[in-house]
Design goal:
Chain lengths: ~525, ~1000
């Protein structure tokens, strides 16, 4: 072959390879949507579902916002049990009020709540129907309320703003006004239910929390002066929340069939039926986090309540302890399986007494170690009174049917009573006594700040309100059984996580941190 | 090709043991051995031809050859790279041994550089070559293990002892903060690989995820002729945005000489190299009484480690048929590699076919290279995870098992106490299989346009499919499994295609100037997709759950599928090398890389390099200096990149879950590659003619570090890819010595030592705290011990200071919960040693390496075998009698940071070169090899060479040990034969 033919072949080769080349390098996502593609889909419903899903991390996990509301309070403590629950002291510092701005769960709670806020806002970028928009706005308000309650500043993005721009920062009253305006605006748009979706009464409930705590959020949280007008709003909203009754069976509000509860106003659905496709609601961690390994279902042997708190309950109080029916076992010995677990524990099928993992009798004691670090191998698994508020769904431990309860009607009644108490109005005592009667305890002679707070504790323990209540009633900084001294004022707010301070220069650290 | 002859050889291969003697009538057989004049070392791969004939053969690894020549032939012609051509007279007994004289000390050696070749003496960059003769010996599943400890600046960490597990490879220190990033680019026969594999990831319920598989597994180690490591930017910049972590070029063997069959068989046995030192039953009982614990003695005496470990059988069979004529060459190899893991129910089986050939057509003006590589990799995977939670995984469960507790109850059922997983029950309940099939073809025509100008097209298509089926039986007493059982089935496909075209011009201008220049274009595309299904509640159905996924309960079913955004790369590159009088060398390269992954504001990156070299020895003033020869000084500077982030990262992505979608990735139109600037100053010389020395200084400066981070909140639930403008600086000095200490006729001793001294630092870092090095285990949720901190080494340990125990046996932490700097996981010294001793027909090769100066966090001691187990589970022997109380909390602290320095005799091989047996069996060589013979270290865990995956938010950890699959010690025997 001649060399010019070779050259021709070479030129052809070069041409072909150059033609093969010249890719524009456009990237197709293949299994995801671009913003424009997503927006072209007329329904914002899938994004709304994602927003509901984001409540899982932010609001239902035992190491997120609910932990920040309970562990620092006088109702919950997470003692370290040798190899268990040290977690570099993350639980102890919550109870002892010695957290810092790197605290893992303070950081993640803040972040998960803001992610939930964004997901809700993003629904509004996708041409939602008015009903979907109202639900999204409710979820946004709920997450913003939680951030306001914890940190007093709320980083905020309006719908349509670019993620490349720095977010706004709403402080105290500014944030509260924004939440109140939103909730007020969406009530007409929201539907009446179902209770595992944002609804009119859920918005009214949250609005009640806003007005009840308005003096807290707009002041320094230490010296709190309540305004009668706000209390009147609380009362008026309470009266608009109708169609619920206090359930005679307290634990039926939390058990695997609590979707039928007449008390629950806003929940995160459980199981698989109504919420197919939604992330789980973490209800299982409610029992796992407190029960011992050898109980059924086997728990994580963690959190306990505090004896002083337990002692606020009278013997007949149905909220204290119950033998609650279960489909999972026969409970031949009629052992207490709901409420507070103390003393010897039993196998609920055979009624045999249980042991701990070292062979000691599984007897839950009243107290944990003073420094929250158990030191005796014979008792370290046994200390502390355990709490089973949500009774386990034995058959479906990993996807229990129990709904996670955010808002409950008895809280509406207690908030109304408190508002009446604070504004000097009549009727508060009657409301509280009526509730107490249903719960199996005698009427109070009078209503005071102190017994009002106690009643809230008895009714709403471990539901994620205790820190909020204690701050409003001025007892949050006070010593308790495992926190011997008065906490510094800075503890009324959580610190802004260091990572978020670094990322957002317009955020300022809360005083004292 | 002589088909008849080939058929005969093949028949011989199959009937090797039964039919050892085949005679060829009209020819005579000549045997011989070729050694180097320098050190007497055998020269492998030398071409041996009958004079006046084109029929020839090649010398084997031990320098021996066998050639059939016409009876009349009296002379052979021997040629070898670096030694020139020499004639040799055939002796009366038909033997012909020769000592070849090195031709200019081996420096005309041709080395493969990116997209071409170069004479080694013309190199200006830092390139290390490891030839097959110098590879590590043993049952090595994957090519990266062949060069472990062989190259200065190269760190290959075996992450897991699971056969076939991925390694962590770092060239010149750690410059990457992200999980899975930092691995070098692998280029096999000129084809850059994707770097990933198609094995589906499994994060088993309650167990965590098992370690990844090595992406090079489908390459047959017996097919590799040499591996070259491009370390500095002047060498690797031609690979542009994929070159920053260094480049490893793998060249496979080509057919050469008369048709021949090479046969290798190797069989061996592995056992775990070290057991973790936990209490035995007697020690446990005495510890119980020592600490006054009344419960806990269950009355039996068992050793859980013995129950889960075993002796594993390894076998390696390889047949290669090769040959060449003056117009073409071919090589076909078939290989089987089987390795049973030292942990029960884990093994690896590889079946590999490789065909490679080339043909010259059109009067030698068109050369066609072509090949097919097919590999099937079957794995059984043990339930040993990298990130097990409080319930641990298999090894941890075995270490924790109470040594006085029988594994089974009297009725034969597993004893499964609450709070402990029975390791034997776990072994029986867990079943995990992976099958990978890799097929690739390449075709590469080269046209010689003129004498000086060549045009080459290389094209390759490769597809890898991975299938993984795993299930866990319902009888295991673990919260999420007992009474349920789960099954997982997934498949992934990874397809890559590549075409590049290179125009190469080589010309001598007069006698003083040589030019070697090329320009090229490359297009690379990679697609990955897959699907998976998961279900629970199979209960006690006695069938492999993965066969009946439809039986799973509706609520537990989870299915998913994905197609990753395509990854396309389009590149233009060029290189010019100028050689003036063989004294002054200049090389410049430039690559423009476009990637579909980059943000739209940064579609193309430009990666230049420039280097100069000075062959000082060629200067007249060096003529009289006899002690120093071949002195060359090199200086190079270049810019390379790393684009190890997923495709789609620069765009907004709304991803799907059941009936919903959500924003999961936030666009960053500015997203681009990490950029690395590297300076290299090097010097090569030989001393007294028998010591070769290379010294290199490097400074690598990595910036625009890729992070996958949170958008300023409020924002979507992660992630946002961003280039953070901080710097990761790696500096170091590499020294490489190769000495022929003894070079006598019957006795030679060669010693090669490489050492690297290096430092690593993160600087100009002004952003939020980045935590990594999560510690797993009970009571350790959310605990991490490493941070990225400005002006500290990457992954610096930060944890609580531990100062012994107080009077009541509690840990003393003088700084409370405050974390302080607690050491550097990055080594400051790497060492590699190879010794080869030849005495007559016996040869002893030792390979060892060491890594020094690094701290290792012993997560096992922290989380798995603490004193707090006493009464429930087992305890590290060291923790008895230290003054610690049983109920002391084993909080993460400096207590568990240990000196990770070690030296390992990685393999030793004794071989005896029998030579020829009869006229048919040639170059018979039998050998014994031991691998991982000993480790010298202070580290108390299984092995200090660790890197379990302890990432947080994609930021990788480094140097944390967490009860990995332990390393094996292996003894092998085998033989090689050609015919």
């Amino acid at each position: 072959m001649k060399s010019n033919q070779i050259r021709n072949i070479a030129i052809l080769g070069i041409l072909i390879s150059t033609m093969l080349g010249c890719s524009k390098l456009d990237e197709k996502l293949n299994s995801a949507l671009t913003f424009d593609e997503a927006k072209a889909l007329t329904s914002a419903a899938p994004l709304l579902r994602s927003t509901y899903n984001s409540m899982q991390d932010a609001l239902t996990s035992q190491d997120r916002f609910i932990a920040l509301q309970e562990h620092p309070s006088d109702a919950m403590v997470g003692p370290t049990r040798a190899t268990d629950w040290d977690d570099n002291g993350v639980w102890r510092v919550l109870h002892q009020h010695t957290w810092d701005a790197d605290h893992a769960y303070i950081t993640r709670s803040f972040q998960n709540l803001l992610i939930m806020q964004y997901n809700a806002t993003n629904v509004l970028n996708f041409n939602p129907t008015p009903a979907i928009a109202a639900e999204a706005r409710f979820l946004r308000a709920f997450s913003m309320w939680a951030v306001l309650d914890g940190w007093n500043v709320v980083p905020y993005r309006t719908a349509g703003s670019s993620l490349a721009d720095p977010p706004l920062v709403l402080k105290g009253k500014q944030a509260l006004d924004s939440i109140i305006n939103e909730l007020t605006a969406i009530i007409p748009e929201l539907t009446n239910g179902p209770k595992n979706r944002a609804n009119k009464n859920a918005a009214r409930f949250l609005l009640m929390k806003c007005y009840l705590n308005k003096a807290v959020y707009t002041g320094n949280r230490k010296t709190i002066t309540f305004d009668n007008a706000d209390m009147a709003q609380v009362v008026s909203l309470a009266d608009q929340i109708t169609g619920y009754t206090v359930s005679p069976n307290y634990f039926s509000n939390f058990d695997p069939s609590n979707s039928a509860s007449l008390e629950n106003i806003f929940t995160y659905g459980g199981g698989t039926s109504e919420n197919q496709g939604r992330a789980g609601n973490n209800v299982r961690s409610r029992w796992h986090m407190s029960m011992h390994y050898n109980q059924n279902p086997g728990g994580w042997n963690g959190f306990t309540t505090i004896a002083d708190f337990y002692d606020k309950f009278e013997a007949t109080d149905k909220r204290k302890a119950a033998v609650h029916p279960s489909t999972g076992y026969t409970n031949p010995g009629n052992r207490i399986n709901a409420g507070f677990l103390i003393g010897q524990q039993y196998n609920l099928t055979t009624d045999a007494p249980l042991n701990d993992t070292r062979g000691n009798s599984l007897i839950f004691s009243r107290n944990v170690a003073t420094n929250l670090q158990e030191s005796s191998p014979t008792t370290l698994e046994l200390t502390g009174i355990r709490v089973v508020k949500y009774t386990p769904d034995y058959a479906n431990d990993d996807a229990p049917a129990n709904e996670f309860v955010f808002f409950r009607y008895s809280d509406v009644l207690l908030m109304k009573a408190e508002a009446l108490l604070r504004s000097g109005g009549a009727g508060g005592l009657a409301i509280v006594n009526s509730l107490r009667a249903t719960r199996g305890v005698a009427a109070l002679a009078s209503l005071t700040n102190s017994n009002m707070l106690d009643e809230r504790g008895r009714e709403l323990y471990w539901e994620g309100w205790r820190r909020n209540d204690q701050i409003r009633f001025g007892t949050f900084l006070a010593p308790n059984q495992y926190k011997p001294s008065v906490s510094p004022d800075k503890c009324l707010l959580f610190p802004i996580p260091n990572n978020d301070l670094a990322a957002n220069p317009s955020l300022q650290q809360n005083p004292g941190y | 090709m002589n088909l008849k002859l080939l058929a005969k050889r093949l028949t011989a291969a199959l009937l090797l043991l039964a039919m050892p003697f085949l005679v060829s009538a009209q020819q005579k057989t000549v045997n011989g051995k070729i050694t180097s004049d320098k050190d007497g070392s055998p020269i492998s791969g030398a071409t041996v031809l009958a004079k006046g004939s084109k029929k020839g053969t090649q010398t084997a690894a031990d320098g021996s050859f066998v050639i059939e020549v016409p009876v009349a032939t009296t002379k052979l012609v021997i040629s070898s790279v670096g030694f020139g051509t020499q004639e040799l007279t055939i002796g009366a007994d038909n033997t012909a041994n020769s000592i070849l004289k090195a031709n200019n000390e081996g420096l005309t050696e041709i080395v493969v550089v990116g997209y071409g070749t170069a004479r080694k003496k013309d190199l200006t960059g830092s390139v290390a070559v490891v030839t097959a003769k110098n590879f590590n010996q043993g049952a090595l599943a994957s090519p990266d293990q062949l060069i472990q400890g062989k190259v200065a600046g190269l760190q290959v960490l075996s992450n897991s002892g699971q056969p076939g597990a991925a390694t962590t490879v770092r060239i010149r220190g750690n410059a990457s903060v992200r999980q899975g990033a930092g691995q070098p680019l692998y280029v096999v026969d000129g084809i850059p690989l994707d770097g990933r594999n198609a094995r589906p990831q499994l994060s088993a319920v309650g167990l965590g995820s098992t370690p990844d598989v090595d992406p090079l597994l489908f390459i047959n180690a017996n097919d590799i002729s040499n591996v070259q490591v491009l370390k500095d930017a002047s060498a690797s910049a031609i690979f542009g945005s994929r070159g920053a972590n260094g480049v490893i070029l793998i060249e496979t063997k080509k057919g050469n000489g008369a048709p021949k069959v090479d046969f290798l068989y190797q069989i061996g046995s592995s056992k775990v190299s070290k057991k973790y030192n936990v209490l035995d039953a007697a020690g446990y009982k005495s510890a119980l009484s020592q600490y006054g614990i009344v419960s806990g003695d269950q009355g039996s005496a068992v050793d859980a480690q013995s129950e889960i470990f075993r002796k594993g059988l390894s076998q390696n069979v390889n047949v290669a048929v090769s040959g060449s004529t003056d117009k073409s060459n071919y090589r076909i190899s078939l290989g089987y590699f089987g390795q049973e893991g030292v942990v029960k129910s884990s093994d690896l089986k590889k079946y590999m076919l490789n065909f490679q050939g080339s043909s010259k057509v059109i009067g030698n003006k068109l050369n066609l290279d072509y090949g097919v590589r097919v590999g099937q990799v079957n794995e059984k995977i043990a339930p040993v995870s990298e990130n097990a939670g409080f319930e641990g995984s298999l090894i941890g469960n075995a270490l924790q098992w109470n040594p006085t507790r029988a594994f089974r109850k009297p009725n034969g059922e597993f004893d499964q106490p609450a709070g402990a997983l029975n390791p034997l029950a776990l072994l029986e309940a867990y079943n995990d299989r992976s099958n990978l099939l890799n097929a690739s073809i390449f075709f590469s025509p080269t046209i010689k346009i003129t004498k000086d100008l060549e045009f080459k097209v290389s094209s390759s298509i490769s597809t890898q499919t991975g299938k993984r089926n795993a299930f866990m039986k319902d009888f295991l007493n673990q919260t999420d499994i007992v009474g349920k059982g789960w099954a997982f089935s997934a498949d992934n496909t990874l397809s890559t295609s590549l075409i590049n075209t290179v125009l190469n011009y080589k010309k001598s201008l007069g006698s003083n100037i040589k030019i070697d220049a090329l320009v090229g274009y490359e297009y690379f595309k990679s697609d990955r997709k897959g699907s998976s299904a998961f279900g629970k509640d199979f209960k006690d159905i006695p069938v492999n759950y993965t066969n009946i996924l439809q039986y799973a309960s509706q609520s537990s079913l989870a299915i998913g599928s994905f197609v990753d955004p395509s990854w396309e790369l389009q590149s233009y590159f060029g290189r010019a090398a100028l050689n003036f009088k063989d004294r002054y060398l200049v090389t410049a390269t430039l690559r423009a890389d476009g990637s579909s992954k980059f943000g739209k504001d940064n579609k193309y990156g430009y990666f230049p390099s420039f280097a100069i070299g000075w062959n000082v020895s060629n200067e007249s003033f060096m003529k009289d200096i006899s002690a120093v020869n071949n002195l060359k000084i090199r200086l190079g500077y270049g810019v390379t990149g790393s684009q190890e982030f997923p495709s789609g990262a620069a765009q907004d992505q709304y991803t799907f879950s059941q009936q919903s979608f959500a924003l999961n990735n936030v666009a960053n139109p500015k997203l681009k590659w990490e950029k690395e600037k590297q300076l290299n100053i090097g010097m090569d010389f030989s001393l007294f003619k028998n010591i070769n020395v290379n010294i290199d200084y490097f400074k690598k400066d990595r910036t625009d570090i890729l992070f996958n981070t949170q958008v300023t909140l409020p924002g979507p639930a992660t992630k946002y890819w961003v280039n953070v403008p901080c710097n990761i600086i790696n500096t170091g000095i590499e020294v490489n010595l190769n000495a022929d200490i003894v070079s006598r006729k019957d006795l030679t001793w060669n010693l090669a030592v490489n050492a690297t001294f290096m430092k690593n630092k993160l600087t100009n870092y002004k952003f939020g705290k980045v935590l990594t090095g999560v510690i797993s285990g009970q009571g350790l949720s959310g605990v991490s011990v490493q941070e990225l901190v400005n002006d500290q080494p990457l992954n610096a340990f930060y944890t609580k200071q531990f100062e012994g125990f107080d009077g009541s046996g509690g840990s003393k932490f003088p700084n409370g919960l405050t974390k302080t700097y607690a050491g550097n996981p990055n080594p400051n010294t790497l060492l590699g040693i190879r010794s080869e001793l030849n005495y007559k027909k016996i040869s002893l090769v030792l390979n060892g390496y060491g890594i020094f100066g690094q701290k290792v966090y012993n997560n096992t001691a922290n989380a798995t075998v603490g004193l707090g187990n006493l009464g429930k589970g087992n305890v590290d022997v060291r923790f008895i009698g230290t003054g610690e109380a049983v109920a002391n909390t084993p909080s993460a602290s400096t207590r568990y940071i240990e000196d990770g320095s070690f030296f390992r005799l990685s393999n030793a091989s004794l071989s005896y070169n029998i030579g020829n047996i009869g006229n048919t069996l040639k170059n018979v060589n039998v050998f014994l090899t031991g691998t991982n013979l000993f480790v010298i270290t202070k580290f108390t865990g299984f092995d200090p060479e660790v890197n379990t995956n302890k990432q947080i938010d994609g930021v990788s950890s480094f140097g944390i040990e967490y009860t990995p699959y332990p390393a094996a010690k292996t003894f092998l025997a085998g033989f090689r034969v050609s015919f």
